[in-house]
Structures are given as structure tokens and as C-alpha cells.
Amino acid sequence: MEFMAMMIAFAPLFSQRVWPQALTLVMGALLAPGKRTVSQVLRVMGLADEPQFQRYHRVLNRAVWSSRQASHILLTLLVNTFVPEGVVVMGLDDTIERRWGKRIAARGIYRDAVRSSEEHFVKTSGLRWLSLMLLVPIPWAQRVWALPFLTVLAPSERYNHQHGRRHKALTDWARQMLVQVRRWLGNRSLVVVADSSFAALDFLGSVSHLPNPVHVVTRLRLDAALYEPAPPRDAHTIGRPRKVGQRLATLKTRLEDSTTRWQSLMLEGWYGHHTYTLEWVSQTAVWYHTGLPPVPIRWVLVRDPLGKLEPQAFLCTNLEATPTHILRWFRQRWQIEVTFQEVRAHLGVETQRQWADLAILRTTPALLALFSLVVLLTQQLHPQFTFSLSQTAWYTKQRPTFADALAFVRRYLWASRLFQTSRDGPEYVKVPRPIFDTWTELLCHAA
Asked: Residue 254: which of 288, 208, 222, 229 has the closest Cα?
């Protein structure tokens, strides 16, 4: 069975006693509707009367296995399936898991980006997660999806202060994650797309100066201090070498300058438009601020000839990248928010009820990784199965969404549990009594 063939790659992470329970939790999380608690998983797997139910809780809060090694295995499966060669493009972003409770020690008070707007500021209590996702085109979906594979918890400053730890900013966590991924991918070309929170010189400098650099694409302030590269140093010059050359005009000045030569570019899917024409200008420069490392960048200044969209600036630490590639890479970043919404709507993120610190560290990253496992399994099964899109007479869609992929995987998993066709009436399907009882119980208590 394809599901077992895929999951067997994770078997070395667990002991012989823990592996069956871990496999049950994964399959139950795929099949369970609503909340993704361990109790709900046991019910959907027909284990409501299991006397040793605590074994399944211990997989999360006590068993010895490495989430980081699991991320490495998942990334290897994703890259081999969707990006066997060429540039590997990833997206980096953080999200808030709304959680309350005194026993959730690492939670903090953060701005709720989903509920806030420019005029209205909303705060929420929860856990902040930083997730790294593979941005790849999915053949059967006919679009780029963001597939999570590595998610880390960024505890609040209050939590670190209470435990005597140095507080690490999101950029510090991001740097460690990218250094780890660079080791995993070896010499593969790697581009990471992030929002303006990661447009920080210390972060960009740390990942750009690796032996095999990680190239970053993000937004750039219009008033950023840009310089020419440092001139060649004379052999007899005394003193410290110069870091940068002459100061350049800001991007805001170039935007207002009537002599700036703009070029046109048509992009697909720019801010919800099927195709949109933009004007751009681009050059290389060195971004520098006193006390921070200078970072060579290629900047791209974009404006809307129709005046409907605000001018924006982007940077890429790969000086050889073209403006077209930079804008297309950045456009793919928007799929990260779609993934966050899908895992909340269909995989039960924010419905789990773990309180132990270790269980909290493992559960949310596992649910995010479940998104990628669904896509992987669908990719393996699609040549043999046909999609049945969830549509009605009043709602039609041309391409499958994650909800369709999850339904496709669930049908496959239920069908693998030995359904039979009646001999007397081929249109009737024989369902084993345990599965029928499980379905009845789930439907009766559905919210």
C-alpha cells in the first residue's frame, strides 16, 4: 500500500514499541474530522475501548524521537518528488496559534495579523511558530503550493526571561533553520522568500556569507541606505578598509525622478489579477547601516502604471538574479498564508489539547507536516485514481484544492480497510461492522 511505503521512511525514528502507536496517530489525524486530539484520533481508528490509551499520549509527551530528523526525511521526500533538479525555492513566515491556559508556558501576547488591519489593532494570546515551506508547482493542482516541512516554536520574551534564557528574535531562529537546511541540501541552489520582517542586515549577512550561500528575496524600504561597492584598497593605505563606497540615491528619490528609465513586465497572479502589467527598474548596490554587516543586493523598484497599487521595492541577495525571477519568486510567497489557513480549516490546528511542553513542541509541527504528507500521497496515487471535486449545481471549480486532496486520501485510506461489493447487488457495498460503527459514532457526535 502506497501509504505504508511512504511512511516506512520515518520508521527508523521510533523504537519498535512506539512505531505502531505513531503510525496510528498519523492515520487517525488524517481520517479524523474536527478536533485533532488524541482521543478523537483513537475514536476514528476504532480504539475507543483501548485500555492502554495512555501509550498514544506518550508518543507526543514522553517517547524519544527527533522532530528535526523527521523534518529532514520529509524534506528529502518532497525534494525528490517535486524538485529533483534546479533551484529549490522556499518560503519563510511566522503564524500565531491561538492558545490559552496557564500550563502553556511559552505563550505570549502578539498582534493578530488575521484580525488586525491598518486602522484596527488586535492582540491575541498564543504560541508563535516559524515555518519553512517548500514552494513548488503541484502538477494536478496546476498552481504553486507551499508545503511545510520544518516548524519551530519561537517562545515569548517573558518565557525566556523566566527561564533564564537569552531571547532570540525571529531572525535568529530563521538563521538557524536556514543553516540546517543548507546542510541537508548540500550544494543545491536555494532561494528563500520572506516578508519584510526578515529584511534585516544581520540576518541577510549571516546567510549570504555561508560557504554555499542561501539567497533571500524580501521587501526593501524605499528609504534604505544604499551604497556603491567599496573601491579597491591601495596597498599603502593606513587604517581600516572601507566597507562601502559612495552613497547612492534612495529608491524614493528614484521613484520621483522623471529621468528614471522604466521597463514594462507582465506578471500572472499579481495581487489577485490574472495578468497585470508593471513597470520596474533594477540595479545592484550595497545595503549598509553603521554597526551592521554590508550586504550586496540586487534591488527591484516596481510601480503600477495605472496607479492602482502602491510602489514597492524588493531585494535579492543573488546579484545574478533577473528582476523577472525576483518578482515571480516573491509572488509565490503568498501561498504560505493559504497553507496556514488550510491547516486551520482542515487539519485541526488550534484544536489540539496537549499541555506538556514536549507535546506542544511536537504536535503543531506534525499537523503542519501532515499537509505535505497529504500532497505527497496524492501525487503518488493520482496516476491511478481520479479526483472527485467537491462541487454542486451552484458551485463549480476547475482545479482541486487541498480539501479535495484530503478527501481523496481519506477515501483511499477507508477503501484500504477491506470494503467489499455485494454479490447479489453490485451497487451495494459491504462495510465491515467496526467501520460502520465508527462512522455512525462520528456522525452522531459531529458538531
From this structure: 222
Give dist(CA 61, CA 357) in Å, integer.
8
Which of 157, 159, 210, 220 shows the shortest CA–CA distance to 180? 210
Measured distance CA(323)–CA(282) in Å, rounded: 7
Supply the pTM of this predicted model. Answer: 0.91
Are 31 and 442 in contact, with CB atoms under 8 Å apart?
A: no
CB 226 within 8 A of CB 299: yes
Q: What is the pLDDT of residues 387-439, one digit of tens each?
A: 667 777 888 777 888 999 998 898 888 877 654 445 555 666 677 777 777 77
Residue 108, classified by CB atoms within 10 Å of its CB into exposed (0-12), middle (13-18) or buried (19+), is middle
The H or E element that residue 361 is part of is helix 357-381
For 284, the grid coordinates are 545592484
Query: In 3-state terms, what secondary structure has residue 237?
Result: coil
Per-residue confidence (pLDDT) for residue 123, from 0 to 100: 85
All residues at 6 or more sequence positions from 85 whose CB lies less than 8 Å from its CB, including other chains: none
Cα–Cα dist 289/286, whole Å:
10
In this predicted structure, what is the pLDDT of residue 421? 47
How large is the angle between the packed helices 19-31 and 54-61, nearest 10 degrees?
100
Q: What 3-state class would DSSP assign to 248?
A: coil
**431 to 407, 409, 428: CA distances (angstroms):** 18, 18, 9
> Of residues 106 and 138, which shows the higher confidence score?
138
Phi first, then psi, for residue 135 (nearest 5°) are -100, 105
Residues across the chain: 447
